[in-house]
Amino acid sequence: MNKTELLYEGKAKKIWKTEDENLLISEFKDDLTAFNGEMKSSEAGKGALNNKISTELFKYLKENGIQTHFVEMLDDNNMLHKKCKVIPIEVIIRNIATGSLTRTLGIEDGKILPFTLVEFDYKNDELGDPKINDQHALILGLVKHQDELDKLRRVAREINDILKPYFFEKGLKLVDFKLEFGYDSNENIILIDELSPDNCRFWDVESGESMDKDRFRKGKGGLKVAYENVLNRILNK
Ligand code: C5P
Fold first, then answer.
1. Which of 37, 39, 57, 196 could form a disulfide with 50 if both were Cys (CB 3.0 to 4.6 A apart)?
2. Does the predicted interface ipTM exceed a cut of 0.85?
3. Pocket test for ligand 1, best of 111, 178, 223 (most atoms within 8 A of CB)
């Protein structure tokens, strides 16, 4: 499958059309951004690591009954996937309080939440991805029916129930993560985008070290080594 035309360039990926109108190619970039583009950098090899990690996780989710847009990894930086109509909602799943939850609500960093929290952010760079509730999502027309919001929440929890023990067994706590969904050609809501240390927080069970993009957000360094470590744990190396 070949790239024909650049459809869209985002912060971490370029999306290409292919000869098949139902399939797209995501090209994972080495660029790093945080805080809605206020922090920018690049790390050679980061894109390939995220492509490989996402590939493994999409395959694992499929084996566990979750529908995703993933078709195949083409090469180091390129993933072939179904073309979907993107739902402009970022679904955030949290097991442990940190990041914006700690900043906005003053919940103690590292507190294990009494239950898994699922939040919706409106995917809109100009507005800074504000947090929204179901009524906002319906008023904005981000989905047509309440059922679809219920489905996003339900599938997000299912994915968390699959991935949390998977990572724990590999010595990583799945602290929180962001998912995106879209409608496939049959109007089914399926998981899209990527699943990588760019959009998940992982803490090492033993040391508590961040093994994800927080290394960049907090100016800690060692990002690539941490992403390689996550991939190696996934591959059981
Ligand atoms: O920043 P915050 O604490 O809200 O992030 C929660 C989770 O969602 C983190 O795992 C972060 O990597 C992810 N996220 C993301 N893209 C965003 C916002 C959050 O991947 N635009």
1. 196
2. yes
3. 178
